[in-house]
Structure formats: C-alpha cells, structure tokens
4-hydroxy-tetrahydrodipicolinate reductase (Rheinheimera tilapiae), 269 residues
Amino acid sequence: MTSIGIFGANGRMGRALVTVAKEQQLPLTAATVRAGSDLAGTDAGELAGCGKLQLPLTETSLAEVEKADIWVDFTMPEAMLAHLQLAVAAKKAMVIGVTGLTDTQYAEVQAASRIIPIVWAPNMSVGVNLLLHLVQTAARVMGQTADIEIIEAHHRFKKDAPSGTALAIGNSIAKAIGRDLSQCAVYGREGITGERDQQTIGFATVRGGDIIGDHTALFADLGERLEISHKASNRNTFAQGALRAALWLKNQQVGLYSMQQVLGLADLT
Ligand SMILES: NC(=O)C1=CN([C@@H]2O[C@H](COP(=O)(O)OP(=O)(O)OC[C@H]3O[C@@H](n4cnc5c(N)ncnc54)[C@H](OP(=O)(O)O)[C@@H]3O)[C@@H](O)[C@H]2O)C=CC1
Ligand SMILES: O=C(O)C1=N[C@H](C(=O)O)C[C@H](O)C1
C-alpha cells in the first residue's frame, strides 16, 4: 500500500493529519519537523494527542523524503517550496494545502507539477468544494444586480489574508459572470469610500480566537439577500480531504490537480 509522509507534522494541520491517518490506519511512514526543531525524536502520535504511533518526528531531509511515496504539506509558502524541491529530487508526489502563495510561488508549484503529480487546493473539505459550485449558480442568477461580498473568519494565528478559500470563492464567482477578479476585487474599505460599485467583489476578513474557518458568499440586492455559508468545526475535515487526495494521487500521472478533480466535482455545473 502507498505510504504517506507529513511535512510540518507538529503544526495545527500536521497534528490533524497524523490523527486522521491513525484513525484510518493509513501507512504513515515519515513525519518531519523543521531542521533543528526541539521536537525531533518526539513520537508523532503523542504530539498529536492520538496515542503513541512508534513514529518519531524527524528533521526534514532528502533521506527522510525517500521514506514515503506521497507527501502532504500544510506548512508555510517558503518551507513548502523547499519541501517541494526535495519531493522533486526524490520523485515523490505531493498534496499541498498551503495558502498565501504569491504568483511566483504558485508558478514554482506549476513547474514542479511537470515532474511529479501534485494536488494543490486552498481548502480540502467536501463542503467548501461544493460551495465553489453553488456560488456560481447564485452569481449567474443574481450577479447582474446584487452586490457580492465574501466574508471569512479564522483563528488569531492565521498569517495570510484574505484566506485562500475566500480568494477561490471570489475567482469562482468572477468566472461565472465574466469578471476578472484582479480587476474587480476590493479588499478593504475605510474613510469616504463613496457608494458601492455593483461591479466590484468585496472581501471582509475577521481574525479571532480559535475559529477554525468560516466562509460566506453574500449576494445582497434591494429587498433580499442570499448568503451561502460554510463553517468548519474541526481541522480533521481538511485532513480527511488531504489524505483522500493522497490516496487518489497514487494513480495519477505528473500534473497539477485540484480538489475538485479528487472529489469528482470538476464537471458539476
Ligand atoms: N487547504 C486546506 O484545506 C487548509 C489549508 N491550511 C493552510 O495550511 C497552512 C498551515 O496552517 P496551520 O497548520 O494552521 O499552520 P501552523 O502554523 O500550525 O503550522 C505550520 C507548520 O509549518 C512549519 N513551518 C513554518 N515555517 C517554516 C519554515 N520556515 N521552515 C520549516 N517549517 C516551517 C511549522 O514549523 P514550526 O512549528 O517549527 O514553525 C509548522 O510545522 C496555512 O497556509 C493554512 O492556510 C490550513 C487548513 C486547511
Ligand atoms: O489557515 C487556516 O486555518 C485555514 N486556511 C485555509 C484558507 O486560507 O482558506 C482553509 C481553511 O479555511 C483553514
């Protein structure tokens, strides 16, 4: 059976991945932490709080990357790109959930996908991937007159804004109604902004406490409004999606795949 490795296994998502891999009895053969981390040697399961796994966390290296067939990465952009180089060198497939990538960083992922199979998605949950379709229907019906706003809320530790999911929702809506998000997005408002331009797509970001991840697409017209919302109540939902993607990826050729493809939703209209 295909073996799985986790980069950044001490992170919030890293620990969720270890927990779900154990629940699903998947062959987790490597779990790494950054070079020099005090956590090297600690049992991955004990750190994740799911009981001993007899799998010590190790410092990331090419030799470690050789120990698993498919690697899952929920770290940070720079770290992920360094991990990607190791995966390319070892010819290992990767599932990447990291958000906040610059265009240049995303281009590096695209380039690597010409050598290894990669799934990249800003949200691995089934619900959000379905929502990406539902908002397109709403946009086609209401988008010519309604004001469109995307509201997201996350925990205080999140480093990027707006969330990768919010941007994906914005792109999905823009595509459905023939707008270019880079031209019509408004990422914040302050002062005398003037009346709202109906052609814009607005984003609002909330950060606080331990909110796992909430997203709402709001279609606000005169007299009525439609809200399509998703709320994650547990990181395991993302981890389950990522591990599903890892198992799916073992049968794929080199290329860059989306979670829509993993879930069989790519052709949904
Ligand atoms: N696609 C999806 O479904 C989801 C995506 N995400 C995304 O996943 C990413 C991680 O989120 P989260 O788990 O909350 O983050 P955490 O901060 O909890 O974990 C980040 C991990 O990356 C490691 N890391 C950070 N910087 C470096 C570096 N320079 N070199 C090596 N390792 C590094 C950390 O190690 P250390 O502790 O040593 O710093 C840690 O293991 C974010 O981009 C987030 O948006 C999150 C949830 C779902
Ligand atoms: O950082 C997080 O926590 C999350 N990040 C992802 C994003 O930026 O969209 C997905 C999820 O909402 C949790």
